[in-house]
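YM 10:42: Endonuclease/exonuclease/phosphatase domain-containing protein sequence, as discussed on the call
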Amino acid sequence: MIRIVYANLGYLREIDGSLAHHIRRMHHHVFTPRAAQLRSLALVKNTLRELKPDLSCFVEIDQGSFTNGFFDQFPVLREDHHLTGTIDNKYSATRKYRRLSVSRGKSNAFLANRTVDFTRRYLDHGKKRLVYDIDIEGIRVMVVHCALLKRTRLRQFEQIAGWIAEREGPTIVVGDFNAMSGEGELEPLLRGGRLIHANRLLGPTFRFGPWRAALDTCLVSAELGARCRIEILDQPFSDHKMFKIDVAAEERQALAS
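YM 10:58: structure's back
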C-alpha cells in the first residue's frame, strides 16, 4: 500500500476558518506569531508521525516571509526518514522577490520517505503556478494549487489536462483546485473519463464562517478507482481539511476481486 497525505496548511496561521477565529485572530493574516506557527507545526508533525505517509504534499507553507517573521516552516516538518523533500515558491521558479514582498516565501512542498523522481512545473497562466509532478512506486502524483479567478482556473485546468495526457499510467491529481462554482468546473480534467473525482461524495473541505465548499480535490485515474480509499481529516490550525489517500497494492486488489 502507498499512503499519501495532502494538506493546505493555510500558512499555519492557527485560523480554522470559523468567524470567531477570523475575528479574534485577524492579526495573524498580517503577522503570525512564531508561537502560533510552532503550535500548528507540532499538530502537523504529530499527525504525520501517526499516519506514517509515504508521501506528504503541502500547499500554503511558508519558507520565510514578512508576515511570519521570516521563519522557514519546512525544516520543522522534515525528519531523518524523509529521503526526498523540497519547498518551492508557488509563484515563480526564477523571480527573486524583495524581502518585504507579500509573495516572498509563499510556497508549496512535499516530503517522501524514499527517493522519488519529480519535476517542478509552472503553469502559463495565473499567479499560483507551481505543480509538482512526482513518481512514486509507479504512480504519478501531481500536486496543484489553482487560481482564485475562474477564467484563469479554467485555463490552468486545460493545461494540467494536457500534461496528464502526456503519458499513460496510474495517476493522482490532488490539491486546492479552488473550484468555487462546483464540480462542473473540473470538466476539462474529467473529460474523456480517464480521471474520476474520488472525493466528490465526502463533503466540504474548506470553511469560511458558515460557508462550506469542496475546494480541495483528489482526481484519480480509472484504474486506481477501486484501489483508492480517501479519508478527510480536520486541521484545527487551517481553514482546509487534510486528505489521507491509501492506494492498495495492485496484486492485493486483484486477489480481493
